[in-house]
Write a structure and sequence with these properties.
alpha+beta, single chain
Amino acid sequence: MTEKKIILSAALVFLSASSVTAATVSITAASLGNPTQSDLQNGHTVNDFEGFLGLSLTITATGNHDTSISPNVDGGTFRNSMPTINANSEPGYTFIFDGNGLQEVLGITVTSSNNIFSRNLSATGFQARERVRTEVIGGTWDSITPNPSGNIGQLQINGVGSSNASIAINLPTTAQAEFNTTGFSAVASGSPGSPITQLTYIYDFPLVTNGGQAPANIESNQPFSLEIDVEAVPEPSSSLLLALGFIFLSRRNRP
């Protein structure tokens, strides 16, 4: 009879553990309810995001955007563009996640396929170097990988293993030269009980010289897409069953 009770307890433990749900979902215009520019600038909140009971997501556009392009969500892409080539606009977005004790955001993947570039056009005195800065609260950046195209060797990646990261590209030392690479993918993670609660994505130019002489074909934008890993918080009863199961199993294995 004792052995049957132990086996039943173990079965309850496994049943309880299997009830924990997890999923990876994309943040898109549709899942956000198609917010307007005004919504994004003032802070746009979606409750029970993608059907995850208790999970709220608030998005706020920050910095000086080129309003002909951004802030805007087009399908699964967040548009992010500045009005002119300068070092002060810093258009970006802040994402705040609140699971209300029911859900946890344990992973984030940020992807941009757009060129990160730099230029040194000494004939006009124009120099510029592009950068993305991104921060997670409650997690760290596990990896940042350049897309395999362009001058990848010139890409400067900082912050892997920390909460703050940046992706930029060197300025050419040769006159009339340019560097570019086709974007990046960055992965961050939290941990159960210590989830990610905020993501910040900022686009800027840390170096601009004689910006008024920028070539007409330079694109001052850095769009990106975003996926989050969401997991339900186990109910207290599940943790109790798990603990009891381990106790019973350990007693069963005693000589």
